[in-house]
Description:
The complex is a heterodimer.
Chain A: E1 2-4, E2 8-10, E3 15-20, E4 24-30, E5 35-41, E6 45-48, E7 57-64, E8 69-77, E9 83-89, E10 92-94, E11 101-108, E12 120-127, E13 133-138, E14 143-148, E15 155-163, E16 166-175, E17 179-180, E18 184-188, E19 192-197, E20 201-202, E21 213-220, E22 223-230, E23 237-241, E24 246-252, E25 255-262
Parallel strand pairs in A: 2-8, 10-16
Antiparallel strand pairs in A: 1-3, 3-6, 4-5, 4-7, 7-8, 9-11, 11-14, 12-13, 12-15, 15-16, 17-20, 18-19, 19-23, 21-22, 21-24, 24-25
Chain B: H1 4-23, H2 26-33, H3 38-50, H4 54-59, H5 69-77, E1 88-99, E2 103-114, E3 117-130, E4 133-137, E5 157-158, E6 178-188, E7 191-200, E8 206-215, E9 221-226, E10 234-235, E11 240-248, E12 257-266, E13 269-270, E14 275-284, E15 290-298, E16 306-314, E17 320-328, E18 337-343, H6 346-349, E19 354-362
Antiparallel strand pairs in B: 1-2, 2-3, 3-4, 5-13, 6-7, 7-11, 8-9, 8-10, 8-12, 14-15, 15-18, 16-17, 16-19
Helix pairs in contact in B: 2-3
Amino acid sequence: MxxxxxxxxxxxxxxxxxxxxxxxxTFYLLGPSHVVKQTIQLGQDxxxxxxxxxxSGSYQAVACDSVGCTSTAFYVxxxxxxRLSFLVHPSxxxxxxxxxxxxxxxVYDRFDNTVLAPTPVKFQFSSSGxxxxxxxxxxxxxxxxxxxxxxxxxxxxxxxASVGETAEPRVIQQVASEACGLRMQAASSSRSVTLQTxxxxxxxxxxxxxxxxxxFTMIDDAGRSTVDTPIKKGVARAQFAVSGRARISVACxxxxxxxxSIGGEP
Amino acid sequence: MRRxxxxxxxxxxxxxxxxxxxxxxxxxxxxxxxxxxxxxAVRALMADIQAHNWSDAYASLDHANGLQESDFIREVAxxxxxxxxxxxxxxxxxxxxxxxxxxxxxxxRMNWSSAVGSLDELRDLSVVxxxxxxRVLWAKPDFPNVPLQVLPVNYLRWDxxxxxxxxxxxxxxxxxxxxxxxxxxxxxxxxxLILGEIENEDTVxxxxxxxxxLLKPDxxxxxxxxxxxxxxxxxxxxxxxxxxxxxxGLRLSQLKSVRMDVRALxxxxxxxxxxxxxxxxxDKDALGRKIxxxxxxNQSGQTANIAxxxxxxxxxxxxxIWVVDGYLDQALLPQAPVPFAVSIPDxxxxxxxxxxxxxxxxxxxxx
Lengths: 266, 367
């Protein structure tokens, strides 16, 4: 009694195991995630369905009759690339940040086995107002990854990883960085002062997103007054009741803006 | 026997009713309503407020200042979905400050049981003699008279849309990036406090919670707490909130270190209303305690029903040495200033060089 199997098989491919001997026997196919048991006739070729060898890895074929058992081992390799897992991190990134974006692609066959053979993965980057560009990398142990910096212009950056006909798109939001050159202007009436910043932009000229909080602080004879107000339509506005001389400052995050004095001070 | 049974039953019933009345405080209430003295007048008024007898309470007042019943009820019972509308007067203490034959000043400390916990209110009441009885002269509330105006409203808000995917890397959006900008462990006589500030450094709003784990010298965990309501949980981009975590019954000597943990979630949020904190000064209250007081002004066109003031105090090196919070029992109507005050321990007040006040608010959903 004997068994002979090909040394390597592609995942999902049907093949045959040759048996020698005669009479009935019980056949076992032991795989990484699957076991098959069936009665066979020795001396005939035993067809193995592709669905029984979907998981890649080491397999053992065993045949037992009334006399004893015999076995053979073979290896199932991943089949051709068919699927991608693609992770792009982070989903939001400040503009002009070096090596801030990490794109990682894992290549699988149609049975979700990691394709370990070096496989070229194409990364395509495109954003509005800039020419798209492509980088191609070969996988190492099933993984292809790269790091890149964000551009100086805010907006969505689409990253598409593709292998053959399979493509996975992801979108990263490139957002404005810290405010730069923060300035405000004041319009005072007899009892109140209305403050409004100039359009708030980062150092690359991108508008800081609406909703970002800007803090106005006024110190006058009545004490300290503060208001945290979100940017709306590119500018932040606030109003204070004022008594006597007052000094007003503005800040956004860690960035300080100009100071204004009201009531005779220069 | 048959004739006396109804009398016995009536007698027992009357006795039980009387006992119930006594037990329920009816005797005390009656005594308090008999305003033979200035203190009794205040006690009677408080008893009526406690029982929500607004008409009786108003009727017992001196009306020389032209106080309207609706104004009195609005001040005492609250309005506009304010915290006071979810409060009841739990207890009160009255003590005299000044008295002569026809006029007295009584100080009353009211303890309100509210939706966010117990709130104290201290008020000096002027009481005047009116013939044989004393009547409280309730100060006319100074409700802001905001002129009719049209405020431009720009409802800036964020929504989270789409669905999450179980596929690895396919449906993920990063949590907001937040950072603890300062942390300080402070010992008080009865507790250890973890104080500091946290900033949303991202461009999207964050719902966050700060957790502190106290570690023993051997590295094991001693106790874990979160910031609960002493924090502004929802932070807009670049917004900073103080936080405070209390560990009652612990001493700093029991700790080796503190492990901080921040959990931030991406949530829908609105940028309105904008509330300014004006005229902030450190002063003393009527009891001589140090307080930070000021005025909140809702600069938006939307009523903020319940407001919470959070204040961080810094020493000369810029370190956060105290964080305190306090709720306002009045709603913040558009453009209407509402005063606030939070207390500061005397030993802390002596070291305070600067402070930062933020306002946390709850706005009831509108139909």
